[in-house]
Design goal:
homodimer, alpha+beta, Arc Repressor Mutant, subunit A, 3-stranded antiparallel β-sheet, globular, DNA-binding
Amino acid sequence: MPVSKKEMSACPIDAMLSVIDGRWKGTILWRLSDGPLRTSELRRSIPGITERMLIRHLQDLVRDGILIRHQEDAVPPCVRYSISKYGWTLVPVLETICTWGRTHLQRLNRGR
Amino acid sequence: MPVSKKEMSACPIDAMLSVIDGRWKGTILWRLSDGPLRTSELRRSIPGITERMLIRHLQDLVRDGILIRHQEDAVPPCVRYSISKYGWTLVPVLETICTWGRTHLQRLNRGR
DNA sequence: AGTTGTACTGACAAATCTGTCAGTACAGAC
DNA sequence: GTCTGTACTGACAGATTTGTCAGTACAACT
């Protein structure tokens, strides 16, 4: 049995979660849904994230086909990330998740 | 900065994922969406899960208000879990996740 | 009398994920 | 000539999650 869901079960729920699961992936996609950003712009727009984690998550998302990496061959390097056509199919799902999450947060706050 | 999303950020996406995140939680909810089950029935219906993990996840889900634990005081003990009214608001979200996950799995299979 | 089944807990090992730190190569600013 | 910024990699520590194993108390069955 796989220890992690990332090792890919045939369960569609697990398959979906393996794509957005990661401490910062939701936030990254959220930022990029307003338009493409450079690596350093993303880093500055997400308080608390480290460069290392940002790049690891970006690579995951590119590998899964959600993001596209545009590199302009220049010095200093200039890399821009954008949501792919396929990635856009994920955005409405994130919005559904977000809507439920918002009511959940309200429920938690009412609870005390 | 929290190491884990479980420590509760204000991000609605993270809040939602913290509820269903866990190696087997999706599967547990999936099984229970067909109706209440006893602990041991759940365990037998989910191949690969251990009793320890099942119980840990069940307790999380009860704590989050998603499941209800019905105990009949009898020997041997008889405990049944069902999805709460609040938990049912989560089910359509899981279905959305599942739908996307299914197309994602198809895409992965076409890719080789 | 020994085994099985029920629903759980506690202690701990193993796997995985996240964060920290140093280092790369080059350009432009000071 | 030193410092800053760019986009990354590699090695490793620390945290978190998952899995393994033993143990509980009682009843029913053989």
